[in-house]
């Protein structure tokens, strides 16, 4: 995978399990403080602004190891670091609302996580764009959806970045959906509302574009599959219409040049 980044830091996986990677660009200054197989702890400064701490995590899936991990994280800052962001795969759900399918939520499984959050007074930030960040990628009654990935921050960090927002992106090639944090908020560029043009029905390749887009797709629920087909068809039509408009505009320009060349002639 090609990344347009200037620097990188890696924790090698154990076989095919685990492993962490951190990439950053020239406008970000990062100092690696501690790194283990389950976390990378750094000091960060963006564009020369004041420093803050960031810890990127992959929590072990086993109950006893989870307890040890959260106890370690509780003591990591040793009372320092008022501006602290913690994000990554927590491997825990904190309520029944954070999961669909599978074994019911058990509060005992999350006690060590709650202890970490409560002891340090951290804020579990909401993630815009979806309720679940992980799927077992199975369908219908076998589907399990959970919110495993989290963005936690201290009150000091939250005050320093009051406009920060966490967004859920599309899961491609992974059972986890990526979570993006925009420190100064996120301004979505205005996009013209999509409308199906009736004149497209006169074009034979419009029908084939829709048919090619409306193919079976693997999603856990019927509603998800239907929504995915609609989105894919929408974007296919947008791309098709741009090409069609470009061809039509070229043809229009050609005809206009011919008309202009005949003007003034008998």
Automatic annotation (TrEMBL):
It holds the Pfam family Exo_endo_phos. Residues 11-176 form the Endonuclease/exonuclease/phosphatase domain. PANTHER family: BNAC02G09200D PROTEIN (PTHR33710), OS06G0205337 PROTEIN (PTHR33710:SF79). This is Endonuclease/exonuclease/phosphatase domain-containing protein.
């Amino acid at each position: 995978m090609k990344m347009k980044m200037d620097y990188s830091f890696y924790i090698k996986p154990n076989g095919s399990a685990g492993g962490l990677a951190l990439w950053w660009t020239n406008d970000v200054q990062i100092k690696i403080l501690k790194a283990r197989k389950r976390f990378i702890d750094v000091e960060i400064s963006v564009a020369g602004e004041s420093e803050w701490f960031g810890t990127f995590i992959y929590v072990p899936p086993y109950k006893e190891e989870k307890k040890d991990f959260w106890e370690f994280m509780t003591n990591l800052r040793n009372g320092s670091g008022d501006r602290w962001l913690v994000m990554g795969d927590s491997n825990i759900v904190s309520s029944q609302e954070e999961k669909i399918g599978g074994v019911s939520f058990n509060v005992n499984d999350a006690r060590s996580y709650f202890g970490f959050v409560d002891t340090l007074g951290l804020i579990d930030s909401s993630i815009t764009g979806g309720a679940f960040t992980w799927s077992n990628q199975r369908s219908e009654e076998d589907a399990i959806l959970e919110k495993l990935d989290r963005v936690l921050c201290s009150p000091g960090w939250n005050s320093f970045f009051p406009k920060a927002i966490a967004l859920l992106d599309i899961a491609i090639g992974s059972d986890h959906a990526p979570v993006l944090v925009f420190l100064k908020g996120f301004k979505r560029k205005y996009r013209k509302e999509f409308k199906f043009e009736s004149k497209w029905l006169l074009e034979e390749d419009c029908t084939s574009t829709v048919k090619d887009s409306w193919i079976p797709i693997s999603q856990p629920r019927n509603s998800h599959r239907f929504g995915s087909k609609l989105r894919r068809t929408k974007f296919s039509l947008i791309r098709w219409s741009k090409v069609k408009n470009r061809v039509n505009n070229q043809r229009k320009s050609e005809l206009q040049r011919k008309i202009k060349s005949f003007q003034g002639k008998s």
